[in-house]
Amino acid sequence: MMFWGMLSMQDALSVTSEQILYFHDYLMMVMGIILCAVGYFLGFVLFSKTYSTSIVADHLVESVWTILPIIVLIFLVYPSIYLLYLIDESSVDFLCTLKVVGHQWYWSYKMDGLLSFEIDSYMDADGAVRLMDVDNRVVIPAQEYIRALITSADVLHSWALPSLGLKMDAVPGRLNQFVFMVMMNSIVHGQCSEICGVNHSFMPIVLEAVSVSDLL
Fold first, then answer.
1. Cα–Cα distance measured from residue 109 to residue 151, given in angstroms and rounded to the nearest whole number
2. 98-to-60, 74, 135, 201 alpha-carbon distances in Å
3. Distance separating alpha carbons of residues 148 and 94, to the nearest angstrom
4. According to DSSP H, which parts of 56-195 are helical?
5. Residue 117 pLDDT
6. Rounded to an integer, what distance in angstroms lies between the CA atom of residue 164 and that of residue 27?
7. DSSP state of 134
8. Could you give the 3-state DSSP secondary structure of residue 109?
9. Going by DSSP bridges, is the β-strand pair 96-103/146-152 parallel, antiparallel, or unpaired?
């Protein structure tokens, strides 16, 4: 869910974004523990009357503050690499192929597979969500894998949907690919996330995920 003035992350609507939120919360927990531990020892050094300068030269202490960060990094690297592989996974069977082309300053879409359509999507200034609605929404099946092919017709763009954990560059002359799935019926908002010209802020993205039975 997204609302005006929110400071938190958007609710997860895909497995990828859900895992990104889990990793963010885990990372904040580890950072909080480190902050408390470092703050405690810093206060001990500054204000303790029994503090001895010989502590900083102690071999055991030096070993601890060398080995401990390595252990912490191991606990951070594993979930990070797991998440990277999850994002790059594209070997699943997909139902449709969505072709996305960035233009100055709108998006064009072509869908092949279960659905078949070709539309241009411009910002709708009078839409329900200010500066984030479009005249033609992209309708996709919910709870089904969709392959997206991204490119650009002119300059660099970036097709970004935070609630799905997606951000893929649209590069002229190059085709980028990823597979995604929207977990529930919903309307997903996004924006171009690459500065592409004077109207960069006016090319939103809107996907509408509906049940497959409603599409047939």
1. 11
2. 59, 38, 18, 23
3. 10
4. 59-88
5. 86
6. 20
7. B
8. strand
9. parallel
Picking from 193, 129, 144, the residue whose alpha carbon sits closest to that of residue 166 is 193
Phi, psi at 141, each rounded to 5°:
-75, 135
Any idea what DSSP says for residue 130? Answer: T
| Placement of tokens 């889990």 in the chain | 22
Please report which helix (H) or strand (E) contains residue 147, including its range: strand 146-152
Token pair belonging to 73? 């990094």
The conformation of residue 129, written as its DSSP 8-state character, comes to: S
Q: Both tokens of residue 177?
A: 């690919």
Residue identified by tokens 């893929």 is 168
Q: Amino acid letter at 187?
A: I
Separation of alpha carbons 132 and 71, rounded Å: 44
Neighbours of 33 (CB within 10 A): 11
- CA separation for the pair 79, 87 (Å, rounded): 12
Distance CA 56, CA 63 (A): 11
**Contact in structure between 168 and 87 (CB atoms under 8 Å):** no
Answer whether 17's CB lies under 8 Å from 163's CB: yes
Model-wide pTM > 0.90: no
What CA–CA distance (Å, rounded) separates 188 from 160? Answer: 11
Q: What is the mean pLDDT of each run of 10 residues along the chain (216 residues)?
A: 64 83 89 90 76 63 82 87 76 84 93 84 83 88 89 92 89 90 88 90 91 76
What pLDDT is stored for residue 15 in this prediction? 82
Q: How far apart are CA 31 and CA 37, in angstroms?
A: 10
